[in-house]
Amino acid sequence: MKNPFHTDTLEPDQPFCNRVAELKELTNHARNGMNVVLFAPRRYGKTSIVRRVQHQLQSEGICVIYAQFMRLVSVEDMVQRLAKAVITGLHEHESLLEKGQRWLRHFPSIQASLSFDPATGMPSVNIQLAKRQLSPLESLETILDEIGNVLRKENFQVCIALDEFQDIIDIKEPRVEALLREHIQRHRCSYFFLGSRRRVLLDIFNNKGRPFYQSAVMMELEPLPEGESTEFVMNQFALGGKLCPPEVAAKIVEGAHGYPYYLQAMSYRLFELCEDECSSELVDQAYKILVSNERYGYLALIQNLSSGQLKLLRAIAEEGQARVASTAFLQGHGLTLGGVQAARKYLSEQDYIEQDKKGLWFVVDPIFRDWLTSAF
Ligand SMILES: Nc1ncnc2c1ncn2[C@@H]1O[C@H](COP(=O)(O)OP(=O)(O)O)[C@@H](O)[C@H]1O
Ligand SMILES: [Mg+2]
Predict the structure, then answer these.
(1) From 217's CA, which of 33, 196, 263, 336 has a CA 20 to 30 Å away?
(2) Ligand 1 atom index nearest CA of 51
(3) Last residue of a domain, one of 152, 185, 220
């Protein structure tokens, strides 16, 4: 029987655990033309949920546009990604209405061509920016203008999702933020700003001195609730023709710490390990296999850390929760206050660590934390 668990971004027709209220809320905000910031740690299901919401909106005749801003490298890169997303979204909308490709004349700055995947028949858009000797910032402004014109002229609704939006900061062009804000506030549509690096993302929207200050509804994706998660695991096992007793499902849920990704990844491993019925011992095995499999990803996460940053990260992982400026912590781990302050800033901007209500720091991802304490 085919494994019923999935660890890639979920397609709208794949089984989804819970998130009923969030799906409804997001869909309503889009219908109302509101802008929303959707934030949660990595692998909490932000992209999957927005995919689902946009699928629903599309079925209602709303045009949906999705651009991934993860690891943007330059303004040009942003323009390319935006252009491709806009043309793809508009084209899909038109195909739905069987009107053809009339969009391109609305975007003189983009030379786009469509090709069709012979296997799936799905259109794929190839983008080239018209060579008009514009600077990257001028190109960005032009395409934002062109989007604004289309939104003004057309009478259908539009929802634009910008995934990992906070990565606009990494291109280190300070004028981008203000430019985006200036146009977005005039665009007649609903924007979703998604992001994992919460500290950076929230600062963009909650810092008085910044252009996007209070320009969107804030929405946090919470951990998956235990009851629904347990039920989800048991149901999926049943669909796959195997039995997962409630106490075994509960053990997986406990190990996943509310992370949808780990819930799926552990269940996936467990499903592979068990014959007809899974046991609690197999969950331990599944967990070990999972951690060993994740290590490449974790190694990539720490690859670019300085030795001071890694030292602090590991020290926090070892403590579980740490008051990092305390003498006991500093002395216990051979750290200095100055070093810790700089490292802490960077680590929290990457969303590797965060502070709880009592001011204690902890490693955001619980399995990453386990790995940090055992891998060295
Ligand atoms: N509601 C859900 N039910 C079941 N699995 C989910 C759910 N949301 C997310 N997932 C799982 O989590 C993984 C990460 O989801 P993704 O949408 O890529 O997260 P993010 O965008 O927050 O990093 C997906 O591969 C999927 O396996
Ligand atoms: Mg994502």
Answers:
(1) 263
(2) 17
(3) 220
> Residue 42: which CATH number?
3.40.50.300
Closest ligand 1 atom to Cα of 19: 1
Q: What pLDDT score was predicted for residue 101?
A: 59
The protein residue with its alpha carbon nearest to ligand 1, atom 16, reads 45
Write down the pTM of the prediction: 0.93
Integer CA distances (angstroms), 199 to 39, 143, 181, 304, 348, in order = 10, 29, 19, 19, 7
Q: Which of the ligands is closest to the CA of residue 261?
A: 1
Same-domain status, 276 and 296: yes
Q: Decide if 126 is inside a domain.
A: yes
Please give the residue range of the domain that contains residue 345: 306-374
pLDDT in tens, 34-45: 999 999 999 999
Q: Which atom of ligand 1 is nearest to the CA of 42?
A: 23
Of the ligands numbered here, which is closest to the C-alpha atom of 40? 1
Dist CA 83 CA 88 (whole Å) = 8
Pairing of strands 123-129, 110-116: antiparallel
Among 208, 210, 134, which Cα is nearest to 168's?
Answer: 210
